[in-house]
Amino acid sequence: MAEQADQAIHAFTETDYWASPTTQVFAFIGLLYVSIKLLSFWRLIASLFVLPGVPLSTFGKKGTWAVVTGASDGIGKEYALQLAQKGFNIFLVSRTQSKLEALASEIQQSCRVETKTLAMDFAANNDSDYDKLRSTIDSLDVAILVNNVGLSHSIPVPFAETPEQEMRDIVTINCTGTLRVTQLVAPGMVKHHRGLILTMASFGGILPTPLLATYSGSKAFLQQWSSALASELAPHGVKVQIVQSYLVTSAMSKIRRSSALVPTPKQFVRAALSKIGRDGGAQGTSATSTPYWAHALMHWAIVNLTPGPMNRRVIDVNRSMHEDIRKRALRKAERDSRKAQ
Ligand SMILES: NC(=O)c1ccc[n+]([C@@H]2O[C@H](COP(=O)([O-])OP(=O)(O)OC[C@H]3O[C@@H](n4cnc5c(N)ncnc54)[C@H](OP(=O)(O)O)[C@@H]3O)[C@@H](O)[C@H]2O)c1
Ligand SMILES: *[C@@H]1O[C@H](CO)[C@@H](O)[C@H](O)[C@H]1NC(C)=O
Ligand SMILES: *[C@@H]1O[C@H](CO)[C@@H](O)[C@H](O)[C@H]1NC(C)=O
Ligand SMILES: *[C@@H]1O[C@H](CO)[C@@H](O)[C@H](O)[C@H]1NC(C)=O
């Protein structure tokens, strides 16, 4: 008897609880929130693993040209190689002529496409270099531009202590260089009513990054600029996209061993070129893609499962991380200099 009564009371209170309008409102909000997140997660998975990107042939036939800056190493070299494998002629631009020539002959042997090279230092911002660049570009039918050249701080450094030269170089190479090259290439694309402009960005542009402040700011600059340009050029049939990336193995990242979170340039570029027009992990950010799957999951999680990239706590955690990296780098430099003596 007592047990039955207990059950009845229990059942009553539970029904009562769920019948309360306040509870219903909260339950509805909760359900809506979870549904939105699930839908967004499903879109992420579809973008990464199910839906194809726009085929590269949309942007130009075989025999049209791809221009790659910072082309002789790392991610830029992979863009050059993989675009050559797709049948595009390749115009390679970076500092070191010998590295450019080695890559050009590697491409010609394996892919039977034409190549051109120009050695220039984007840090010099020299008009005569840009004149040479312009005269070559004007003679080519350029289908694809990859703005890949970039420089980061050599080690994390408080902004006030950043060497002036390093600060200037980052802005000159990453921002000014990208703008000037794009201005040389875009008119031809508009004339042909087709083309693709990819610009390499990094999480440092979405997440304010203490001790890499100048780099972080320059990447954010590129993000805004590229999204604005995308809207300007879309009516002219030209696709503009920022390619977001977390770490990739390369000389710049100083990471040699790849892992799930840190792909090789080859894996990264394959993802980038096969997912043109898909947003990957960069949902809702116009003309932006985070194409590599592990970076995309990370990007999605930062936006959806943390207080967000502009949150003070998230930024402070990053600052402690970079202060540690700086301490270790300085200690290592000291050890090395003692060894050298
Ligand atoms: N690696 C990463 O973890 C990572 C993450 C996010 C974004 N990114 C971005 O991806 C892009 C490529 O990075 P990466 O890791 O592949 O770099 P990398 O391996 O260091 O290669 C840099 C390339 O740029 C050229 N270069 C450097 N400074 C130059 C200058 N002043 N003028 C002309 N060319 C110059 C280099 O050629 P020379 O040596 O012949 O000059 C080289 O070909 C960068 O924009 C970077 O910000 C990289
Ligand atoms: C630019 O490059 C040209 C040709 O290499 C050189 O003669 C000139 O001195 C350079 N200008 C500057 C400002 O460095
Ligand atoms: C400059 O470009 C490099 C390589 O793309 C990148 O790692 C760095 O974040 C960029 N810096 C700025 C300020 O855009
Ligand atoms: C922290 O800094 C790194 C650069 O070392 C950056 O790539 C990353 O996106 C930052 N993460 C957060 C959570 O701010």
From TrEMBL:
Listed EC numbers: 1.1.1.330
Family listed: Belongs to the short-chain dehydrogenases/reductases (SDR) family.
A Pfam family recorded for this sequence: adh_short
General function of this protein: Component of the microsomal membrane bound fatty acid elongation system, which produces the 26-carbon very long-chain fatty acids (VLCFA) from palmitate. Catalyzes the reduction of the 3-ketoacyl-CoA intermediate that is formed in each cycle of fatty acid elongation. VLCFAs serve as precursors for ceramide and sphingolipids.
Reactions it catalyzes: a very-long-chain (3R)-3-hydroxyacyl-CoA + NADP(+) = a very-long-chain 3-oxoacyl-CoA + NADPH + H(+)
The entry's keywords: Endoplasmic reticulum, Fatty acid biosynthesis, Fatty acid metabolism, Lipid biosynthesis, Lipid metabolism, Membrane, NADP, Oxidoreductase, Transmembrane, Transmembrane helix
Lineage of source species: Eukaryota, Fungi, Dikarya, Ascomycota, Pezizomycotina
Coiled-coil residues: none
Chain residues that bind substrate: S202
GO cellular component, one term: endoplasmic reticulum membrane
Pathway the protein takes part in: Lipid metabolism; fatty acid biosynthesis
Membrane topology of the entry: Single-pass membrane protein
Name listed for the protein in its UniProt record: Very-long-chain 3-oxoacyl-CoA reductase
Gene3D superfamilies for the chain: NAD(P)-binding Rossmann-like Domain (3.40.50.720)
BP GO terms, sorted: fatty acid elongation; sphingolipid biosynthetic process; very long-chain fatty acid biosynthetic process
Enzyme category, top tier: oxidoreductase
Keyword Zinc: no
Active site: Y215 (proton acceptor)
GO MF assignments: ketoreductase activity; very-long-chain 3-oxoacyl-CoA reductase activity
Cell compartments where the protein resides: Endoplasmic reticulum membrane
Membrane-spanning residues: 25-51
Taxonomic superkingdom: Eukaryota
